[in-house]
Amino acid sequence: MKVLITGGAGYIGTTLCELLMNRAEIEEIVVYDNLSRHNYNLFIGTSKLNAKLSFIEGDILDSRKLRRAMTDADAVIHLAAKVTTPFADQDAHLFEQVNHWGTAEVTYAVEESNVHKLIYISSVSVYGSGESIKDVNSNLNPKTFYGISKMRGEEHVTRLSNKLSTHVIRCGNVYGYNRSMRFDAVINKFLFEANFHSKINIHGDGQQHRPFVHIEYACEQIIDTLFDSDAPSLSNLVEHNYSINDVVEVIQELYPELEMIFINNNMRLRELKVETNQDAADLTILKDRLKNFKQAFTI
């Protein structure tokens, strides 16, 4: 199988590539990425990439280059996106261009190729916020330009569902260590600040919940979809719903001298929980994972 991964040099893409290289079914992996985050860590380090993997520096809005890169691909995993923290609301034009129309270009290229499977990594941000727990049947009500753009991207992908195997995966907030880190994601950011500054800032009262998924678990589920699912599907990729205070409680156990500063602590910020079959209150898994993450810091 030949797989093209748009945004494959990013945070999720790095772990995904490392896992896919070890699969015998995979003959070739093409990473298609414009390196807009200036993150080159996929290409350096002691963990070597094998000959299965090749890299094309390109933008998903470059339709000609994208079509050439897709030549002979059996499957496309579409990760490329302008990404933000869940409720940030800025850069409306960039979100619209990259996440909406960029995804449109991917679907147009797929439509003209021999690709038989398209996996699109969307976001739970399409649900917006609210007190009720969201599932795939919940109404979409995105509150940010980012969420709106991901919802529009979904529409382009599902348009192809009667022509090939399409899979829309709404991903929660991804956390955990790999060599292409995102430190704007809340758990990763908190752990970095706790380790190097012994202080974290918490916006609001900390009672707001967010849906989370670990980087390795997320990539394993994407790979399962790549190999096991043929019928078009729509799913959420969430392990646990933690409150910000839950996360802080675990980090404080790892860093007993941690100072916490609440900003506008009289405010309750937007709430978002997404259905999961795991115990949302179980912090044991989170603590074990953050212990391992902590050991990855060099000082």
What does this entry look like structurally?
The chain has 299 residues and is an alpha/beta fold. It has two domains: 2-174 and 212-238, Rossmann fold (3-Layer(aba) Sandwich); 176-210 and 241-294, Alpha-Beta Complex (UDP-galactose 4-epimerase, domain 1), CATH 3.90.25. The chain has helices at residues 11-20, 63-69, 92-111, 145-158, 186-197, 215-228, 244-254, 284-296; strands at residues 2-6, 28-33, 53-57, 75-78, 117-123, 133-134, 165-171, 173-175, 199-203, 209-214, 233-237, 240-243, 259-263, 273-274. It has a seven-stranded parallel sheet, sandwiched between helices. Strands 8-10-12 form a three-stranded mixed sheet. It has a two-stranded parallel sheet with strand order 6-14. Helix 3 (92-111) links the parallel strand 4 and strand 5 (117-123). The mean pLDDT is 93.
Labels describing this entry:
single chain, 299 residues, alpha/beta, Rossmann fold, UDP-galactose 4-epimerase, domain 1, 7-stranded parallel β-sheet, 14 strands
